[in-house]
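ZP: hey, is the ribose-5-phosphate complex queued? I don't see it on the tracker
AM: it wasn't, my bad. submitting now with these inputs:
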Amino acid sequence: MSRLILPLPGNETFARLLAAEGGWSMVESETRRFPDGETYFRILSEVKGHAVDLVCTLAAPDDQFLRLVFAADTAHRLGAAEVTLVAPYLAYMRQDKVFNPGEAVTSQTFARLLSATFDRIVTVDPHLHRYPLLSALYQIPADSLHAAPVLADWIAANVAAPLLIGPDEESVQWVSGIASRIGAPFEVLRKTRHGDRSVEIAMPDLSAHRLRQPVLVDDIASSGGTLIEAARQFSAMGLPRPICAVVHALFAGDAFALLSEVAARVVSTDTVAHASNAVSVAPLIARHLNTLPLRKES
Ligand code: R5P
């Protein structure tokens, strides 16, 4: 038995990188929409007795979910020894409690549905805030890998005298880890969120770091509101434009264009395919998959 890599549409480039890193073969599949909008899915390669790693980043989960389930069920039915979801970006992590009466706690529901479909999940930097571990949400083995070292190495190689900046308290885990790896100072801003796209950022006194290049680090750029507002504050205070480094480049709507106007540069990992991708997490994921025991012999 060996590992096989099965990409869902849109994930082929990342899947090929992963397969090349691990020395694994790709699974061929065919999928299309019927005229009425339903999904057709077919696996064309032999998967019986193998560990199938289904690669699908979940930046647009609602559009992809049913195909994901059809693919996993098909691999199981064809005799795959185990089916792992490799989702470099894992969606539905932020609505993790009831903020207003009557709301869906979507992180719990999504975790239940994926847990019923896959044998294991491997992801990168899920947005863990109120849940300390992914295993508190998921009922199957759920492995969280960390992109901070990958981003840290990019910053060390490309930015002279960086000052790491976290845009809010939740970013401390990423920014402090990167700062300690590359021996740079860090500061954390204070964020107040007023709505999906509306945030207010309070800046500390950064005058002691005037000669350093600010690097704003966050896990997700979603609406982009957080990074755009933080970057605007740097200009308003006469500080150098920040470089923005994010793990997951979702960048809804015109967020990337707006951020590019106020940032010196925007870089991201390839957990979500985007023009800002500067560094790949495929080697990180391949190394992890290589450590997983294969469950059954064919
Ligand atoms: C929130 O706490 C996260 O760390 C990100 O700062 C946030 O999700 C970014 O969202 P947006 O780009 O919509 O401001």
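AM: back. The first strand starts at residue 3 and ends at 7.
ZP: great, adding it to the tracker
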